[in-house]
From TrEMBL:
Organism: Tritonibacter horizontis
Pfam families in UniProt: ECH_1
Matching InterPro entries: ClpP/crotonase-like_dom_sf, Ech1-like, Enoyl-CoA_hyd/isom_CS, Enoyl-CoA_hydra/iso, Enoyl-CoA_hydra_C
Top EC group: lyase
Pathway note: Lipid metabolism; fatty acid beta-oxidation
Family designation: Belongs to the enoyl-CoA hydratase/isomerase family.
Full protein name: Putative enoyl-CoA hydratase echA6
The protein's Enzyme Commission number: 4.2.1.17
Keyword terms: Fatty acid metabolism, Isomerase, Lipid metabolism, Lyase
Length: 276
């Protein structure tokens, strides 16, 4: 029997959000949420990652845990999205700067790198291509023993284009960077740790990332943000004299202020600090 077009229609089932954000105790828990596709990145996830980064930036979070639901952190670009991009003749979108100095693809990594607060990535399973570059946006990367990391773009005849070349040279020796880029060969978490791509290995990277984020969230928020700014400036290649001057300027803005005095009193009274 034909359906009455005037009859009420059941609401269409909505896809779950590509990325979830939960704020608890000043820690933002950001989860790539497409486990059935190994969190492969499609256009919807790109938009969701950027939106999540902006949501965290507006919040009162003091640290971020960035993780992926399911067996893998992120296996790279979604194959169907990749195929559609390959058929596009207009390539102007690649050069368009949509998020500051980045295009949308680069912003999925750079939005975390540019946050004022520390970001800790918890990695497991496949961390390939886009997934690796998203993880590079974090300050710290904690990997499960089963994690495998790859600069995967050369497999498809491409170069890393999601922030990888802005971030990888800060972590890897040139020869290691070249080997990973030229071959697209995945490496085990233990090898990635030896090379400096992974901070530490844990049987439960999410739990360890959460513990570390809680520890950071208990420190002075202004001091943590100042430390992240100062480290970034020191790594920028600025002259030593300018780094020393910036060091002094950041310290002058902190010392004797209410936050710093609360930290001192809390230490003397052997209690957690309370920040207003």
């Amino acid at each position: 029997m034909a359906q009455d077009p005037q009859a009420p229609q059941a609401p269409a089932e909505q896809d779950p959000p590509r990325v979830t954000v939960a704020l608890r105790d000043h820690v933002a828990h950001v989860t790539l949420n497409r486990p059935d596709k190994m969190n492969a990145v499609d256009n919807a996830m790109i938009r969701a990652i950027i939106a999540a980064g902006k949501e965290v930036a507006r919040s009162d979070a003091r640290a971020v845990v960035l993780s992926g639901a399911g067996k893998s952190f992120c296996a790279g670009l979604d194959v169907m999205s990749f195929a559609a991009m390959g058929q596009m003749t207009d390539k102007a979108w690649i050069m368009e700067r949509t998020e500051g100095v980045s295009n949308d693809f680069q912003a999925v990594a750079m939005i975390w790198h540019q946050l004022e607060i520390p970001v800790i990535a918890a990695l497991q399973g496949a961390v390939y291509g886009a997934g690796l570059q998203i993880a590079l946006g974090a300050d710290i990367r904690i990997a499960a023993p089963d994690a495998r990391l790859a600069v995967m773009e050369m497999k498809w005849g491409l170069v890393p284009d999601m922030g990888g070349m802005a971030l990888l040279p800060r972590l890897l020796r040139s020869d290691v960077l070249r080997q990973m880029t030229y071959t697209a060969t995945p490496v085990a978490a233990s090898q990635a740790a030896d090379w400096g791509l992974v901070t530490t290995i844990s049987d439960d990277p999410v739990a360890q990332a959460q513990d570390l984020a809680a520890q950071i969230a208990g420190k002075g928020p202004n001091a943590i943000r100042a430390a992240k700014r100062l480290i970034a400036y020191a790594e920028s290649g600025a002259p030593q004299s300018e780094v020393l001057l910036r060091e002094s300027a950041e310290q002058a803005a902190l010392i004797g202020e209410p936050e710093q005095m609360e930290v001192v009193m809390a230490n003397l009274q052997k209690r957690p600090p309370v920040f207003k």
